[in-house]
Amino acid sequence: KTKDAVKLLEQAIELEPRLFPSYLQLCFYYLELEKNPKKAVNLLKKSIGQCPKVPLLYSSLGDSYAQMEQHQDAIFNYNKAEELGIEPLSPFYFNRGNSHTKLKEYDKAIDDYKKALNIDSKHFKAWQNLIIVYYYKGDTHNALEYASELERLDSNGKFGVWAKEVIREIKAGR
Length: 174
Known about the structure:
Blueprint: H1 2-15, H2 20-33, H3 37-50, H4 55-67, H5 71-83, H6 90-102, H7 106-119, H8 124-137, H9 140-153, H10 158-173
Helix pairs in contact: 1-2, 2-3, 2-4, 3-4, 4-5, 4-6, 5-6, 6-7, 7-8, 8-9, 9-10
């Protein structure tokens, strides 16, 4: 049935090339089910040609490039989505922060993880990555501070347990 739905979405785009939600659905299929980010990139480039003012298309293109480990291209498209006024959601900033981290742009990554947390303070992976980036920078003071906060927020969960271990390891390494 999924293949039938994909064919219908492809037909919808042929009939109305400015139907951007169809592009987003196909992109999801290519990324998540087919695990084919190149196909998603090609589709999204086509969609942006038809709908150049839709921020979600650029954000999805950024996600596709990130899956391909092309983080400069990912950040370019995330920034374009932000410029066009994408709704500020925690996953957007988290994903852009991840691309900055991969490029060792740690200050920019920190800014994005903090933006993600300002929107959703329970985005535990953003907490985790923020702590890791501070540690990569050699800023054990902030790594400890944020790890303590994460431990408090998720005291009985896997991220709280992880934070407790990080605190122990950092203190042992001093």
